[in-house]
Specification:
- The chain has about 500 residues and is mainly alpha-helical.
- The protein has 2 domains: about 5-180, no CATH class; about 235-485, Orthogonal Bundle (MetI-like fold), CATH 1.10.3720.
- Helix content is about 75%, strand content about 0%.
- The chain contains 17 helices and 2 strands.
- It has helices at about 5-30, 40-80, 85-105, 110, 120-125, 140-175, 185-220, 225-230, 255-285, 290-300, 305-330, 340-365, 370-375, 380-410, 415-420, 435-445, 455-485; strands at about 235, 250.
- Strands 1-2 form a two-stranded antiparallel sheet.
- The chain starts with a helix and ends in a 5-residue tail after the last helix.
Length: about 500
């Protein structure tokens, strides 16, 4: 029995319980006894009692069933790969799972006539649109068949148990329908716990992200000195063979951090003036019809994937600037196709909607009375903007700029295509540099294992970038919240 079918049946049981409980509660409201909760609260309480325990059982049973089937496959595989378990064990598990999924495409008659060799089975599965790796062995066929049978049995058992739990919860909820039953309190309390759980997901996710990087970072610093990492000026990881433990490379963070901040700074030089002036125009000068067209059109830039910006920088803007500089400098270009300026300029274009939208909301939040008071004293509109509105909105604008900077620091695809991968230390904006995010991608590209400093350094870079952007976000939110109520 599939999980989707069981889930649908549980919802049907819950819906039936809802209507029966609501109808029963409505019949008890005869005016003689004052009811505590309205009929639909009794219906929702019966629905929740019927569905929530059953859905939780389905989730737990699905996880447990998958674990049990994996252990069964693992026990069958161990004997076959005992000569080289480290190299073949994981591959065998993956092949058997793929084979088991492919066998589910066959009907009962085809399974009854199933060949025992993979050479004969492969054409049959290929006709069903199933492509399997050539490394699949003959012994995997009966293991995959048995795994499917075991999965089906567990599915039926779990489905029956879930339906019994749903029916029991529905009966219990309907039986609880009484005039003075506090169904409303029960529903609202359960919803409160649900909202609390939803809000906790963000915190738990953040903690999980930090811990997943922290433990690997600790492993990295067991091989490489933190001082040489945080204060080193040379980036040369020197990839070694997996398990070799070669720490002869140099893992200096300074070139990567400098490139990250430099490119983000150039992006802000482009995004902040254009975005801020656009926000001032839309908030103070634009007619309502113009604003209704210009603002959505400007925010369309935020919907363009960053890889598209990177391709534009790599194919169009970078070569154009290189050729232009060559024409101006007698045939020798002083602007490289991949450079800090190219990446920063394109990233700034991408960030214009962020600055514009945040600044526009902050400027329009300034009370109308401050504008009217300045204009009433004889100030022009431009003087009012410069001396009243912008100073009043300045804390919020600063917070918006810091939030934009944290977005720029975390950008990857534009930098990969437009700034190159050279870990240089330079002040020339027309030369290539790279960022922390690019090197994280480089260190984790390919079929690698996390058992050498050359791969573990990606986690050290990741947690460094995480805390850098976290600090900027905290500072931005602090500034916004501290001054938000000043002009209410």
């Amino acid at each position: 029995m599939s999980l989707g079918l069981v889930f649908l049946l549980v919802l049907i049981v819950g819906a039936v319980a809802f209507f029966i409980a609501r109808q029963r509660a409505g019949g008890q409201d005869n005016g003689q006894v004052k009811t505590h909760s309205r009929p639909h609260y009794h219906g929702w309480w019966a629905f929740l009692l019927a569905t929530l325990p059953a859905i939780l059982l389905i989730i737990v049973w699905a996880i447990g069933s998958a674990t049990y089937v994996n252990r069964f496959i693992d026990s069958q595989v161990q004997d076959e790969v005992s000569d080289n378990p480290a190299a073949a064990h994981g591959l065998s598990l993956s092949l058997i799972k793929s084979l088991a999924n492919g066998l589910r495409r066959l009907d009962a008659d085809e399974l009854a006539k199933l060949p025992q060799t993979f050479a004969e089975l492969q054409p049959i599965l290929a006709a069903k649109g199933v492509a399997l790796a050539t490394d699949t062995k003959d012994y995997m066929i009966p293991v995959a068949l048995e795994a499917n049978k075991l999965q089906d049995r567990l599915g039926w058992i779990g489905g029956v148990l879930a339906l019994l739990v749903a029916l029991g919860g529905a009966a219990f909820g309907i039986n609880q329908v009484k005039p003075r039953a506090r169904a409303r309190n029960s529903v609202e309390r359960l919803m409160l716990w649900g909202l609390l759980g939803a809000s906790t997901i963000a915190i738990v996710t953040t903690i999980g992200i930090v811990l997943s990087m922290l433990f690997q970072t600790i492993n990295f610093f067991e091989s490489v000195s933190p001082l040489s990492f945080f204060f080193g000026t040379v980036w040369d990881p020197r990839f070694a063979a997996a398990g070799a433990g070669d720490t002869g490379g140099q893992f200096g963070l300074i070139p990567l951090l400098a490139g990250t901040l430099y490119i983000a700074f150039v992006a802000l030089l482009v995004a902040v003036p254009v975005g801020l002036m656009s926000a001032v125009y839309m908030a103070e000068y634009a007619a309502p019809k113009v604003r209704a067209v210009v603002k959505p059109a400007l925010e369309l830039l935020a919907g363009i994937p960053t890889i598209v910006y990177g391709i534009f920088a790599l194919v169009t803007l970078g070569p154009f600037l290189r050729d232009l500089s060559a024409a101006l400098y007698g045939g020798t270009p002083f602007i490289q196709a991949q450079s800090i300026f190219t990446a920063g300029f394109v990233m700034g274009i991408m960030l214009i909607p962020v600055v514009s939208s945040l600044s526009d909301d902050i400027i329009t939040a300034v009370p109308r009375a401050m504008r009217d008071g300045s204009l009433g004293l004889g100030a022009t509109r431009s003087e009012t903007i410069k001396r009243v509105i912008l100073p009043a909105a300045l804390p919020g604008i600063v917070g918006a700029i810091l939030l934009t900077a944290s977005r720029a620091i975390g950008e990857t695809m534009i930098v990969v295509l437009a700034a190159g991968v050279a870990a240089n230390l330079t002040l020339n904006p027309f030369e290539a540099m790279t960022t922390i995010t690019v090197k994280i991608v480089n260190q984790l590209t390919g079929d690698l294992e996390f058992n050498s400093p050359q791969t573990l350094v990606a986690f050290a870079l990741g947690i460094t970038l995480f805390f850098l952007t976290l600090i900027m976000n905290i500072v931005a939110l602090y500034i916004v919240r501290k001054y938000r109520e000043q002009y209410e």
